[in-house]
Amino acid sequence: YVQDLKKAIEPMKAHQLALEAVKEGKTAPAFSLVSTEGNEVSLESYKGKYVLVDFWASWCQPCRQENPNVVNAYKAYNSKGFEVLSVSVDRDEQAWLNAIKEDGLTWAQVRDTENKVAEMYAIQQIPTTFLLDREGVIIATNLRGEALEAKLKELMP
Question: What pTM, to 2 d.p., does this model score?
Answer without folding.
Answer: 0.89
